[in-house]
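During the reporting period, we have paired protein sequences with backbone structure tokens. One record among many follows, to show the layout:
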Amino acid sequence: MKGRTPAQAAEVYTASAWMLDPLSPPERFYLDALARALGLEAALAQQIEAAVAASGAA
């Protein structure tokens, strides 16, 4: 997703993780593919998912 800043990429990923919590296998696949498309490092994606889980979002 070219043209996005790293902060925008993290926001898109956060919104998706928040909407999909808890994850089913197809949703896990989607988030992994989204992180790659956004250019997010795996550690940042994990931090975002941990924050979403801790917030009790779903």
